UniProtKB/TrEMBL annotation:
UniProt GO molecular function: hydrolase activity, acting on carbon-nitrogen (but not peptide) bonds, in linear amides; zinc ion binding
Protein name according to UniProt: Mycothiol S-conjugate amidase
Keyword hit for Metal-binding: yes
Alphabetical UniProt keywords: Hydrolase, Metal-binding, Zinc
Annotated source species: Glycomyces artemisiae
A Gene Ontology biological process term: mycothiol-dependent detoxification
Signal peptide: none
EC number: 3.5.1.115
PANTHER family: N-ACETYLGLUCOSAMINYL-PHOSPHATIDYLINOSITOL DE-N-ACETYLASE, N-ACETYLGLUCOSAMINYL-PHOSPHATIDYLINOSITOL DE-N-ACETYLASE-RELATED
Gene: mca
Catalysed reaction, written as an equation: mycothiol S-conjugate + H2O = an N-acetyl-L-cysteine-S-conjugate + 1D-myo-inositol 2-amino-2-deoxy-alpha-D-glucopyranoside
Similarity comment: Belongs to the MshB deacetylase family. Mca subfamily.
Amino acid sequence: MTNRSTLRLMCVHAHPDDESSKGAGTMARYVREGIEVLVVTCTGGERGDVLNPKMDRPEIQENLPRVRSEEMARAREILGVQQHWLGFTDSGLPDGWLPDSGIDLPQDAFYLVPTEQAAAPLVEVMRSFKPHVVTTYDEEGGYPHPDHVKTHEISVAAFAAAGDPAKYVDRGEPWQPLKLYYNHGFGKARIEALHYAMVDAGLESPYKDWMDAGDWTRDKSERVTTRVECAEYFEIRDAALKAHATQVDPDGFWFAVPRAIQEKAWPTEDYELVESRIDTRLPEDDLFAGLR
């Protein structure tokens, strides 16, 4: 699958479009530095909605799995990444669902697959692709969507098992990734920086309600260990995100802050190093710190 002389990054995501809204600038940078990048997409997004009103047509909704697969193909071409579907079925997001809410999910939901079983194909892909670095979501899934929570669970389990010859013995030769990161995208520090940059520019901030609410109880900014400079790749990131046309309105929230303001106010994508099998010094500015 790969040229074994290069460094390799695996980014594990729940749905098509997640790869373009979480860490896409980082991936674009590394691809163009000659690093191999593989996106693993756990589900097909079958139970998602059409979130872009410009695409909300019956023929789109009726063929959503196919359309989202086609969108993913365009996004991966723009980013320059490889991509692998794990093949699990989207769990959907019932109103009020939380891990302990007791709200039922469809019987074929990815979230309901036992973690040891669901991790098996990810272990196989890890052993085949042989990543040095893996990124995924934190213990809350980044936000409480059942597929994001399950993606976290299987990523952590696969990272631990991939190098163990006693685990998943039928899933390929053992390979131990060296670093595991969680994505962190909407921390207080970033939101404040973008908000005040918009205000200073005399523009309406899309984060005004967040600032007015002042509820930062879920903020995890202090957990960020690694900030990857990738502002010059935000254009590629945005193009990849727009490729997911059913999910992203090009005139909507994601693009309310002009790119030039983003590049100046917050030119990094941010991560939390949660496990490392090599020595590295924190804070970092590179997911491959200690490996180059």
